[in-house]
Amino acid sequence: MLCKNKNVPLESCGRTLIIFLLLMQVLPAFLEQDEDIPHNEVKNWALQFGVDLWEYGKMETRMNELQRKYHDVDIDVVRKDGLILIREMATEVKNMMDFKMSAVMRIMDSAEQAALTPRTDNGQPFRYYNAKRLNAFGPDGSPAEGTREMMLTPNPHFDHLPVNTSLSSVLMPTNVNENDAEVMNAIQWSEHLDPLFINNYEGDPTLSWQFFGSSTGFLRRYPGIAWPPEDMSTVWQRPRNNRNVYDFRSSAWYVNAATSPKDIVILVDNSGSMTGHRANLARVTVEAILDTLSDNDFVNVYKFSDTTEETVPCFREQLPQANVENIRYLKDSLGTLKPENIANFTSALITGFEILHKYNRTGQGCQCNQAIMLVTDGPPSMYKEIFKTYNFPHSPVRFFTYLIGKDSSGAREMNWMACTNKGYYTRISSYDEIKDNVLHYIEVMARPMVMYQNDHPIQWTSAYVGGRADSFADDKRGQLMTTVTTPVFDRRNHTVRVANVLGVVGTDVSIDQINKLVPPYKLGVNGYSFIVNNNGHVLYHPDLRPLENNDLYEDTLEPQYISVDLTEVELVENENGPRENHTVLLDLRHDMIDQKEGETELSIKVHYDNMRRVTTRRNKYFYNPIEGTPFSLGLAIPEGYGMYELLAEQEIKHSQKNVTDYFRGDNWRVHPDWVYCEYTSGTSGEQWFKTAEERVLHFLSRSRRPGWKWMSLRPRSPLQREHHHLSTKQDKDAYYCDKTLIQSLVMDAMVTDSLEKHPFRSHLEDKNQGYDIFGLTLSFVATRSGLLRWINLTNMESKEPHFSENNVRAMDETWYKRAVDQHSIEPESFVYSVPFDIGSQGKPLITATHAVFVEHKGHRAPAAVVGLQYQHSTLASIFLNITSKVRMKTTCASDKLDCYVLDNNGFIIISENNEHTGRFFGQIDGTIMDSLVQDRIYKKVFVPAKLFFNFILQSFFILFSKLKEAYGTAIAYTQEEDDMIDVYRDYDLEQYPTGEDVIDEQDPIISPPSNTYSPSFIPPYESDPMEGVDIGQSGVRPCDRKVDLYILQPDRLNTSGQNNPLKGKLTNCHVTGCERPFSVQKIPHSNLILLVVDTMCPCGSKQLSIIPQEVNYELRNGGCLHKPKDSLYRRRPPKCINYHPEEIEIHICGHASKMTVNIVTLLLGIGCCITAFLS
């Protein structure tokens, strides 16, 4: 058009056309040069970095040669039959548990017979092995007066403590008087249990501690031990003489064995008369009652004055399950009581009876024992009409009364209420009376069971953290335990009608013993097992992460039971919150509680690395009952690769080559927790072997000897009806070998041994070539049989532990699991990781792993994982070199761009700022991270987390709480004038720890007289030493928590088979209106992405946290700060023994405690008399 204009010269038209054509040629280059981010170059950077690392890693690990080696031997890949597998494993677990139950029943039989033995009295005081008075010697070397000598030898099977397997010893809580005639008589006859303890242990060397807990308060424990054990020490170095055994009679293992399940209503007087010392006594009494309850019981606490209401509002009109969580809320609620008005006993009694009758009629609660506990300073009447209406004539609801204080005006009424309603009346005027008086209700509820004589129910406890595990692992963590118990009845003839429980016998069972019978190698990588009890609570599960610091158990033997539901550890892949569960999971749980056999499928979220990472996986579940117990065993196996296993074994017995040749050198390890072979006799001693590798070599050498037998079947347990027979002592050289596992280990050693013998190509030519180029320091391989081999590729010394020190668990290691999962996403790739939050500390290493799968007849199964470790600084330099050597003005070396290499969970592997290494990218730039989520590059996954215990600050909390108790005591005890003199007389000061126990060289401080059962209440005081300390952060209570974690969605960066960069832009993020573009590119052959961000627009950046936060249900849960689990299905224990028609003939129902004379009152009274006389 321009040239057609006649007014324009032709020459001008030509020049304009030439300029236009030149501009069209240079404009694309000009535009790209001025482009904020060179997207095409970003793609090239990622491609070069990923391909270079893949090719180099493939060569150095020789993964293809390893795969070929497996194909060269006789192998098979078969599909697992989950139902057959679960049946076999459940049978083995049942067999082991039968052994434990048979042992307990034999102890019970022996105890009931021993109690009938007349006491011998030769005129000499009876001497016994008191655990607190052992091996104390005088100057002449002889035992000091009042002590005895016992030979003690450290034994790894018994918490690595010094023990005597030929004797038992007696542990005496401080509130038990050993000079009491009943106590001494029980100590004497229970000594006859020693031969039975020994016989049980010889017949089943896997038995842990055996014990008899006497109703008089002492604990006889086998094997014999000094208390406290001399090698027990903690971070606080607590004095030995203050580590006292707790009074076990309120513990679940004792109470559950002695009584059937219970529905309990506790009525606590909150009227104006219940102030000061009385209020504190009442609160400690209620807490002591709550401490005796457990998962099979149901309870609520009601406060009453002019009205009656629940102390926890969200427990309105219900009896919540007495699990650890609910008991804690009930205890905490007692601190809110504010005495006021006049007590309306009519309202309280009717409320108690109504809720119990409602539960009985509607089939709720335990459907067994029911009881009301009345805690008050005295009622004005007996309220006979109420009892007549609700409880006569058969008294289905037992009534227990606790008269608080020294005023006895209500004693007659309280005594009548208890005695006419099959209960027990006690009077509590001091703290040291509470424990024994509360325990009376257990004796009463046990009467029907004792009177029937012939039925001894066996009880299994929830899990708890006990002593150190018998393991080759070098940690000193406590192991998960459970306890199996049964009651011991008094069969003696008495002058009056009684029905007494003599005590409870039992044995502890290590969860590790169960795990041995469910070998992880049979489940495969990312497979796991778990056990569920009749309440739906897990006995063990890989996500059950309890308190690691078990000082309370080590110091007192008091177990802290863990009540964690299956729905809290199996996290369904949906958007629901904590305890909002999927129908399929609830069906699985229901079937396992009902002890059915079956299978199902479920997509779940799995978190690891201390809840920093998450992945999703679809599992197949198989479950089967463990008959004769309240448990069901479950298996979870990943769908796909998890359903196939590699079968490859090397025959050992007839091998022409000495198979130990495959295990030369010191650059190999085996899984320390797996049982390849082991001696099963307690006398042969695992102390023979210092390491798992030494044990493997020993048995491999032994397998070459003539007459070798595999012994791959564990001993079969006797039938329950035969429990009275003595067990057969095992041969001292008896052993067990897992033939499949150890021959698979030899096969893996043979295959990987050849890789080590043929040196790596690059390292033969130049030992340091690989290190110089990529910073390679280590090459390793881990296999399905638990074998780890490594080759050090540099002589550089490091302050950090060697890889082999913390990575010996093969398929249980996170890097192994991630590599196998990554294989299904991108088969030809490595998974890269760095230590979390490592920053620029030391010389961090990047670990790269790749899963090697083996294929046979169309089926594929993981065989091993190969890996490399690189110096982080070297790889970072390579990355910066790649992203800087281009002709563009804008590169990662310029100030205009920030470049990051992120892993599939959003953690920074490489950044220009070394301080970012190992940190979550959302903490650096949460705005960009949010944009990556919106663009579906990362998926945000909501992960609910049950915080069972937070042990990081617990030790500090213990210190503060002890100080708080100590300083707050005296003021509370002097609130009522009639108690002022009795404050120090009501309890023995030597029984309770002083300030010296907490801080050395401090003056003694009087502690509360409640240390034995650790009430949560603290008497009021003027100055709070805990002021400003957030107790909620100190690990004192369980709670629901949640966190958002992130997963890369690699398909979003793969369009039409091409990995193209995804271009993004932050807009409206600054007042200037500037924009902040970014580019994301998948790094091929890896779990990484390259993120390039423009820095020129100063957009504000928020921070995202991956620290779990507490869930507050208050606004949507009726004022509750938590969400109860009580609506979930449970199955009641099979036996309920709560009635015997002749129980009414027993007339022992309590009497007033011995009154303490108030010196001040006495002196005032005498003074008044003298004055009156003189006048």
From TrEMBL:
Coiled coil: none annotated. GO terms for cellular component: voltage-gated calcium channel complex. It is found in: Cell membrane; Membrane. Residues 1-31 form the signal peptide. Its main location: membrane. It is a multi-pass membrane protein; Single-pass type I membrane protein. InterPro entries: Ca_channel_alpha-2/delta (IPR051173), dCache_1 (IPR033479), VDCC_a2/dsu (IPR013680), VWA_N (IPR013608), VWF_A (IPR002035), vWFA_dom_sf (IPR036465). It holds the Pfam family dCache_1. Residues 263-442 form the VWFA domain. It comes from the Eukaryota. One of its GO terms (molecular function) is voltage-gated calcium channel activity. Keywords: Calcium, Calcium channel, Calcium transport, Cell membrane, Disulfide bond, Glycoprotein, Ion channel, Ion transport, Membrane, Metal-binding, Signal, Transmembrane, Transmembrane helix, Transport, Voltage-gated channel. PANTHER family: STOLID, ISOFORM H (PTHR10166:SF37), VOLTAGE-DEPENDENT CALCIUM CHANNEL SUBUNIT ALPHA-2/DELTA-RELATED (PTHR10166). This is VWFA domain-containing protein.
